[in-house]
Design brief:
It is built from 16 helices and twelve strands. The chain is an alpha+beta fold and 431 residues long. It has a domain of 97 residues. Strands 1, 2, 3, 4, 5, 6, 9, 10, 11 and 12 form a ten-stranded mixed sheet that branches. A hairpin with a 2-residue loop joins strand 9 and strand 10. Helix 2 packs across helix 14 and helix 3 crosses helix 4. It is globular.
Length: 431
């Protein structure tokens, strides 16, 4: 029984310090170097909401100004910090069969001033909403999975409006780019940085872009990218729609294979694989159309696949099934780390907040790999459970009661000043 209570507190603390020391080298002054550690600790804490005020209070600062400086005004490059995260992930989760997963997530917003916001389709909401969208890159391997990079999608309505760009601090070098183009940049940065990977997975937004697929073949990266039922592929009988090909398959073409383990059992589907030798281009390799059929509803899903060498069906199925991992990462980052709780309208602040959430998530993912092997009757420790334990056992004991009282006084003093200001402003206009 005693073994069941063993946790790797010292190893978690050492790993956290290793990552914080690494990204700390991106800060030239000691104040932001200390604050970034406190900021990430605040993201890991179970705060009701996460913003510069609540994180500053959690850190024991005498006000929110230091955390606001870290996000909005201090001198540091969030791109270099994300590069450090990729190196950290490569060292802790890297595997030659690693999978890069591209997907987007949306944050619902009010108004029109937050950078990138407009009415657009959000997969998170499942409909057109006033929101901002970001393309994320996730890394999955047999050792774990985590978010590693991000690019904010800037719609044409923003990219072509100099006044809105200036107000939101959008750099002049940033121009309009489609989501597949943003995904390609993220993937190429990961490959150039030496992150070990063999595959790329993505949904229809990326599978429908032939330029992205060609770029992946140029990098010799295999891919399993979802496509629409109307997607057309070259066959020996001419160019055909994917759904027409599926309709003509014989019964023996289908095989029942699990797309991965789920919380309630294996995720079994029926799968069929159609070779596409007519699709070969200057990159050579092997092309396939992969078709998934739901065992209960009969609903079909389609994937364009490529690999520089022949691979068995079950490997392509495993890559297709890996896409759910990015959704798991989004859920953990939003519910536990405040990914969508930022209150920043400007370009730089948005990227810095999101980058530090990625730092926190990468730490949790890596820390699960150094945890004690589970005893009988326990599942392996999860990212969400590790976050709770890390805060309770390492972060929270270091806080002082005096800091809690000081922030109660700070809030009440701030509210008193605000009330006085409101009454004074009202006295200037009302009788």
């Amino acid at each position: 029984m005693a073994a069941a209570y063993r946790v790797d507190v010292q190893r978690w603390s050492g790993l956290f310090s290793e990552l914080m020391d690494t990204i700390g080298e991106r800060f030239t002054r000691p104040e932001p170097r200390r604050r970034v550690r406190d900021f990430v600790s605040g993201l890991l804490a179970p705060l009701p909401t996460k913003n510069c005020w609540t994180i500053a209070e959690h850190a024991g600062d005498d006000g929110p100004g230091g955390m606001q400086d870290l996000i909005g005004r201090a001198s540091w490059d969030d791109t270099l910090v994300r590069a450090d995260v990729r190196q950290f992930v490569a060292a802790r989760l890297g595997h030659r069969d690693g999978i890069l997963i591209v997907d987007e997530t949306g944050d619902l917003k009010k108004g029109t001033h937050t950078v990138g916001v407009q009415r657009q389709y959000s997969g998170t909401a499942g409909k057109i909403e006033n929101c901002q969208l970001a393309v994320h890159l996730s890394y999955a391997s047999p050792l774990g999975h985590t978010l590693i990079d991000v690019a904010l999608y800037l719609p044409k309505s923003w990219a072509e409006d100099p006044d809105r760009r200036a107000e939101a601090g959008v750099p002049e070098t940033v121009t309009f780019a489609t989501k597949p183009q943003l995904a390609r940049r993220l993937i190429e940065a990961a490959v150039a940085g030496g992150l070990p990977c063999r595959w790329v997975a993505g949904d229809e937004a990326y599978g429908g872009d032939p330029h992205l697929a060609a770029a992946l073949r140029g990098h010799r990266l295999g891919y399993v990218l979802a496509v629409a039922c109307s997607h057309r592929v070259p066959t020996g009988l001419g160019v055909q729609r994917a759904d027409r090909i599926a309709a003509g398959l014989p019964k023996q073409a289908w095989q029942r294979i699990s797309a991965g383990d789920g919380a309630k059992g294996h995720r079994f589907y029926d799968w069929a694989l159609v070779a596409l030798p007519q699709a070969v281009d200057q990159h050579a390799g092997h092309h396939w159309l992969l078709i998934r059929r739901n065992r209960s509803t009969g609903e079909l899903a389609f994937y364009r696949c490529w690999s520089p060498e022949p691979v068995p069906l079950h490997q392509l199925v495993a890559v297709a099934g890996s896409r759910w991992r990015v959704e798991e990462s989004f859920q953990a980052a939003k519910t536990g780390l405040g990914l969508d709780q930022h209150q920043h309208r400007r370009w730089q602040a948005w990227h810095r907040w999101t980058t530090l959430v990625i730092v926190a998530h990468a730490f949790l993912a890596a820390a699960t790999t150094v945890s004690t092997t589970s005893t009988q009757g326990l599942i392996p420790i999860t990212v969400n459970e590790l976050r709770r334990l890390f805060h309770a056992l390492i972060i929270e004991p270091a806080r002082r009661i005096a800091d809690v009282i000081a922030w109660s006084l700070f809030r009440r003093r701030h509210q008193a000043t605000a009330i006085t200001s409101h009454y004074a402003r009202q006295a200037l206009t009302d009788p």
